Amino acid sequence: NGSETEVLLPNNTSSKYNNLGQILGIHTKAAKTIFDGGNVFLGKKDDGENFLIIGETVLNATSANVRYEKPVIEDDFEKMLKELMSPISLKNSEFEIEIVNEGTGEKSFGTINYNSDEALNRIAKDFNVKKENICVLPQVDYHIDLFIRPIGYPYVLVNDIETAEELETSIFGDLIDGKAKEDKKIQTEKAIKALEEAGFIPIKVPG
Prior knowledge:
single chain, alpha/beta, three-stranded antiparallel β-sheet, about 25% strand, globular
């Protein structure tokens, strides 16, 4: 349509992002979403609307950044993610964190409410997608591109954990403990359910 291509960059004050658009001769936009490229898939539905599939750490980190309300630099990013120990309830935006009493050094666990609704608003704006067209998947792997691959709406390839494990075991031996395998299977089934609820058709394939 003749419009200029816009490249979405992390909201990052690191020097490597400074003046990047000017150097490369492209139009850039600093995102308010905290994301890695391998943890997002942007595409179009049959009706022409955009859809977005993200890993839950994108929502978690962006929700935390809403609370921090400042650009995240690389050193702070790792520190911030450590505060998000594990999500208790994604829908209720509650996260379990370790709390350390500075006086006594005593450790305890508590929950903090992050504004995931505002985070979804920011994600939707950054990626030009309606909030209802955002599908959040459990983090089965470090990045979602390690276990899913959209191949044309509404089809999404999903790693068949059991078949993949059989292939891996036949080649490398049993390298993963039983609990880790079971956890991965459970998370994969949750991912498949989330995709189905969002209108996608998951197709299991090994690999």
